[in-house]
Specification:
Helices cover about 70% and strands about 0% of the residues. By secondary structure, the chain is mainly α. It folds into three domains: about 100 residues, no CATH class; about 60 residues; about 80 residues, no CATH class. Helix 1 crosses helix 4, helix 4 packs antiparallel against helix 5 and helix 5 runs antiparallel to helix 7. The two termini are about 45 Å apart.
């Protein structure tokens, strides 16, 4: 998706078109080709303005962008058709570009406030409440932020907030690490959990990746539980897979500069 800065000139043209009509002599009725072109734009406007959420709105930005970038060839709009065409384009823009920009501005404002709140927290309770609010905010308006080319700005605010919360030991990365005890039946898998803990705590890895690793280990420990959940006939294969995973983690750690036990 292109960002929205390239749309100023086409929208100015649409505004000029929308002011056509109503002058003497009376405008001629649209030709069939003009009517078809205008009807296409009005359909795009109707669909865009029917959106009820940000995801839908951002999806229709592409459609409106296409209307502005690819005007129908060989169609010379008369006054009446030009006015309808211009009004439809401006209406579609209002329901997409303007709404997306407003959502992105609000998202950045929310993230800025949460960054300031996170860095002002002095205790665990404040940090945990802010961490929850921050994670909710990260999911809102993400598509709009990308559409206006502000992803880097949003990511920087989020990273700064998490850095402050890290000092308080807040977040899933600081929760007690799960323990896998198979009584020695699956030593490779027990080693995998221990090694993954050190890897996921390495701050040289992006936070999102570290949290995903933590979630994966939680699911694995819950799935295996104890050796009773792994049939005897498949334990060697399961343990061998865990051992291979440990080797892969060590290779990744060496590449990223993380220290493992």
């Amino acid at each position: 998706m292109r960002t929205l800065a390239h749309l100023a000139a086409p929208l100015l043209i649409a505004a000029a078109l929308s002011s056509c009509g109503g002058k003497a002599p009376p405008p001629a009725a649209p030709t069939p080709a003009e009517e078809a072109a205008v009807a296409d734009v009005e359909r795009v406007q109707a669909a865009a303005c029917a959106c009820g959420d940000d995801e839908c709105t951002v999806e229709h930005v592409e459609d409106v962008d296409g209307v502005l970038a690819h005007a129908p060839p060989d169609v010379h709009l008369g006054d009446a058709a030009a006015a309808r065409y211009g009004r439809a384009v401006l209406g579609a823009a209002q329901c997409t570009f303007v709404k997306v920009q407003a959502t992105a501005r609000q998202t950045l404002a929310d993230l800025t406030a949460l960054r300031d709140r996170a860095c002002g927290c002095a205790d665990q309770a404040c940090g945990e409440a802010t961490d929850g609010a921050l994670r909710d905010a990260e999911g809102r308006g993400a598509e709009a932020v990308v559409a206006v080319d502000a992803h880097d700005q949003a990511q920087a605010l989020t990273d700064e907030a998490h850095a402050c919360l890290d000092k308080l030991g807040v977040g899933p990365l600081f929760a007690p690490w799960p323990v896998l005890d198979t009584g020695g039946a699956l030593p490779g898998c027990e080693a995998y959990v221990r090694v993954m803990e050190a890897f996921a705590r390495c701050d040289k890895i992006p936070r999102g990746t570290r949290e995903a690793l933590r979630q994966g280990v939680d699911a694995m420990v819950e799935g295996i539980g104890d050796q009773a959940r792994v049939p005897d006939e498949v334990r060697p294969q399961v343990d061998a897979a865990c051992t291979q995973a440990v080797d892969a983690i060590r290779q990744s750690a060496a590449q990223t500069g993380c220290t493992l036990p």
